[in-house]
Amino acid sequence: MTGTSDTRPPNILVCVKFVPDPNQLQADASGHPDLARAPFRISTFDENAIEAALQLSTRHGGHIFGVSVTSGQVPPRDVLLRTLAMGVEVLYLIKDEARLAADPYRVAAVLAAAARAIQSAENIPSWDLVIAGEASADQFNAQIGPRVAMALDLPAIAYATKLELQHGRLIANRATDERSETLEVDLPALVTVGTEINQARMPTVLQVMGAARKPIREIVIEELPGIDLDALERRPSLRTIDISAPPSARKRIVIEGQDAAEMASHLLSRLGTDGEVKF
């Protein structure tokens, strides 16, 4: 990818993942996640990524594109439209019905190929900035952003808490356990962000209505230019064998007493007997 112009408004690509809402995820009778009962949503960190892109676009102009790899089920249309209502101008869905991109390396390889394909399809001279959430709300492996940067041969800054574009360079702040850092890198670049960077705004009614007029473009992964699926499948990969929640049986103990003081005394006694509270 070539460098960006100092005067040209930036073209920003945001990597978006749609996940079952962790706040509504429950285990079924076997202890496995009941994905059918949890509605889809934009991964929390990716909402922050969209907001970061929108803030930069507000200051510097330019365009915001979104790209997502959907494995198996495509999220409901209202979830896709929320991405557009939040500020993405065009959303590309890479449909992976066979779940060929099943681990971070493969997802990153597909996203990188998609970035190049979108750049060509939209006649974009170069991506100036690629923004990704620091991790996904479901798996939290924190690998996608750095792997996409490697696949696109871009410099990367992770865990940014503040972003600015100045004279063809990205200036980013981030905080570590020991210190605060200010980093600077030439564009084009990739950056990952978390919840500390901003508070994603709620789309207005007009933005929600306008989202329906924005394009959602689908590409079947087998038809994605620049990706060798056979070579991708031959590479070693991670496979999740099982996910289950620890058993949690309720004790169903009823605390009784003549008044509140007696019930509180019985409750404290019971908590102390069970080892829940140490006196």
Q: What's this, in brief?
A:
By secondary structure, the protein is of the alpha/beta class. The chain folds into two domains: 11-234, HUPs (Rossmann fold); 249-279, no CATH class.
Describe this entry's structure for a reader.
Strand 8 and strand 9 form a beta hairpin. The strands form three sheets. This protein has a seven-stranded parallel β-sheet, with helices on both faces. It has a three-stranded antiparallel β-sheet with strand order 8-9-10. It has a two-stranded antiparallel ribbon with strand order 2-3. The longest helix has 18 residues. The chain is α/β, with parallel strands linked by helices. It folds into two domains: 224 residues, HUPs (Rossmann fold, 3-Layer(aba) Sandwich), CATH 3.40.50.620; 31 residues, no CATH class. It is globular. The protein contains seven helices and twelve strands.
Give the C-level CATH assignment of the largest domain.
Alpha Beta
Give me the CATH architecture of the largest domain, please.
3-Layer(aba) Sandwich
How many structural units, i.e. domains?
2
Estimated structural class: alpha/beta
Look up the CATH topology of the largest domain. Rossmann fold
pLDDT < 50 runs, ≥5 residues: none
CATH superfamily of the largest domain: HUPs
Annotation field: number of helices: 7
Shape field: globular
Q: What is the typical, i.e. mean, pLDDT? A: 88
Between the first and last Cα atoms, what is the distance in angstroms? 64 Å
Give a quick account of the main beta sheet: strands, pairing sense, barrel closure. 7 strands, parallel
Total count of strands: 12
Q: What is the succession of H and E elements?
A: EEEHEHEHEHEEEEEHEHH
Radius of gyration: 23 Å
Strand content: 15-25%
The strand order across the widest sheet is: 7-11-6-1-4-5-12
Fraction of helical residues: 25-40%
